[in-house]
Automatic annotation (TrEMBL):
The active site is at C359 (nucleophile). InterPro entries: MeTrfase_RsmB-F_NOP2_cat, MeTrfase_RsmB-F_NOP2_dom, NSUN5_7_fdxn-like, NSUN5_RCM1_N, RCMT, SAM-dependent_MTases_sf. GO terms for biological process: rRNA base methylation. Residues 460-470 have a biased composition (Basic residues). This is 28S rRNA (cytosine-C(5))-methyltransferase. It comes from Pleurodeles waltl (Iberian ribbed newt). GO terms for molecular function: RNA binding; rRNA (cytosine-C5-)-methyltransferase activity. GO terms for cellular component: nucleolus.
């Protein structure tokens, strides 16, 4: 397929949050990966400038068949890149408008008082430049364990430096060094830009390329093996595969997503990761009936709905307006959907714990959604999640600090937000929990006790805690939450 069409397709998938740019480029099967990756990255870098030129010159109105993302890659190549290489009919169209496009770019440079095009990218005064993030990998415990993965990398010439004791250590990694993460188990940390897309462990599903912050939701939800879980907005499925690993493939994950293409990608990812305990449904989660007996044992829900994506570092330019902020209207529309879907999720009768997460940095999509939901629903409260995590929710309501935030500058991750809800305990709820024990859970009592060592969430688990303390590995001691 033609370069520009493939590049535009990747921009579109990145906007729909189907994965990181690098992964999407590799998945495309395009023969010249390097050329494609460079074109996509550069187009993203100049995205808001290109969009401005396209809009001011009325390009899409004059060329009805031309879509924004194809226009962006074409205009990038004709104005900033190495000139149009291929493109057939698109090339002819772009050539037709070349003079006008060049004139608009020239006017923009005069207006911004710069002589080189790249100087248009200079951040405005006071803007913080995001640091390059470490490369995080999650060990897929359905297929292997951290020890095996560490040994494998050592044999590949990497130097293992042990478990990190500070975030600064993660930020100092260079060359072929790597560390075990200090906050989350089964996360290994490598220097920025380490590329594992061709690594055997990745292609065989033994490791998952997932930002550390995006591993928080499943880790905090921590479903016991054998339990029933809903992943409400699941595709492309990194969090689903993490949930399956925590469940040890025992129990059930009901995973929903409205987007057919993303679900197809998810099917491939889950197969590669060895996930077998899931049921995928191409369905609007808002239309899933909470009283359906099928979901009567669902005690855990992971809700990671569509959001502005404003926290994702390699997409910052693409998804924000010229002034760096998402448009107020768009944010309001997203927040309204997020509130709706969160309230819906809390209607499932047996749900005990729910994790709400976004990769947005906006208060409107995060603390405001949580505050609104708590005001509307007094059966649930917030749990003080992972007390050792350094960045907390913005203090815009009394318990907002129970929530977690993440950012390139403070946690060396993409921007992220997580809130852990817990049903307030009362006689009726406890009865419901007992009657909801699934067959798999009854078969796995020993496993529950073991898992409970690291999870102070449930009353029964807490009682067993003292007994096994001496056997705990250091990472199992991580306190995931505390009730305040
Ligand atoms: C942030 S992404 C989910 C990422 C996913 N949790 C992961 O870790 O790979 C949000 C997803 O929600 C889906 N979505 C949006 N509205 C939905 C709805 N009403 N019901 C189900 N899925 C929905 C989108 O198609 C998109 O795939």
């Amino acid at each position: 397929m033609a370069l520009y069409q493939v590049a535009a397709g990747i921009l579109e998938r990145a906007q729909r949050k189907e994965g990181a740019v690098k992964g999407l480029v590799y998945e495309s099967g395009y023969k010249n990966i390097k050329q494609l990756y460079a074109l996509v990255c550069e187009t993203l870098r100049y995205s808001s400038i290109l969009e401005g030129i396209i809009n001011r010159t009325n390009l899409l109105r004059e060329e009805k068949k031309l879509k924004m993302n194809v226009a962006k890659v074409l205009v990038y190549d004709i104005l900033i890149g190495k000139g149009l290489k291929c493109g057939g009919v698109w090339k002819m169209i772009a050539r037709k408008h070349q003079a006008r496009l060049q004139a608009d770019l020239a006017r923009l440079k005069v207006k911004k008082k710069v002589s080189r095009t790249e100087d248009l990218l200079v951040p405005s005064e006071g803007a913080v430049k995001a640091p390059a993030l470490p490369r995080y990998i999650r060990v897929n415990t359905l297929k292997t364990n951290a020890e095996n993965v560490i040994d494998y990398f050592k044999r590949q010439g990497y130097a293992y430096l042990g478990r990190a004791s500070s975030l600064q250590e993660l930020g100092r990694l260079s060359g072929k060094q790597f560390l075990m993460d200090l906050h989350l188990p089964d996360i290994l940390v490598f220097p920025p830009r380490t590329d594992f897309h061709k690594n055997y462990l990745y292609t065989a599903g033994h490791i998952i390329l997932q930002d550390k912050a995006s591993s928080l939701p499943a880790f905090l939800l921590d479903p016991t093996s054998g339990s029933h879980v809903i992943d409400a907005c699941a595709a492309p499925g990194n969090k689903t595969s993490h949930l399956a690993a925590l469940l040890k493939n025992k129990g059930k994950i009901f995973a929903f997503d409205m987007d057919t293409k993303r679900l197809a990608t998810m099917g491939t990812l889950l197969l590669r990761a060895g996930v077998t305990c899931h049921q995928l449904a191409n369905e609007d989660f808002l239309k899933v009936e909470p009283s359906d007996p099928k979901y009567s044992c669902v005690q855990h829900i992971l809700l990671d709905p569509s959001c502005s994506g404003s926290g994702i570092v390699d997409r910052l330019n693409d998804l924000t307006d010229d002034d760096g902020s998402s448009s107020a209207e768009r944010l309001q529309a997203l927040a309204s959907f997020q509130r709706k879907v969160l309230s819906h999720a809390l209607r499932f009768p047996a749900v005990e714990h729910l994790v709400y997460s976004t990769c947005s940095v906006h208060q409107e999509e995060n603390e405001d959604v949580v505050r609104h939901t708590l005001l509307e629903n007094n059966a649930f409260r917030l749990v003080n999640a992972l007390p050792s995590w350094p960045q907390r929710g913005l203090p815009v309501f009394p318990r907002a600090k129970c929530c977690l935030r993440a950012s390139p500058t403070e946690t060396l991750t993409n921007g992220f937000f997580v809130a852990l809800f817990e049903r307030k305990k009362g006689g009726e709820e406890l009865l419901a929990q007992v009657s909801c024990k699934t067959a798999e859970q009854s078969d796995n009592n020993d496993e529950h006790v073991e898992k409970a060592e690291g999870n102070p969430l449930s009353v029964t688990k807490k009682k067993k805690k003292k007994k096994k303390k001496s056997q705990q590995a250091p990472l199992e001691k991580i306190q995931k939450s505390e009730t305040v």
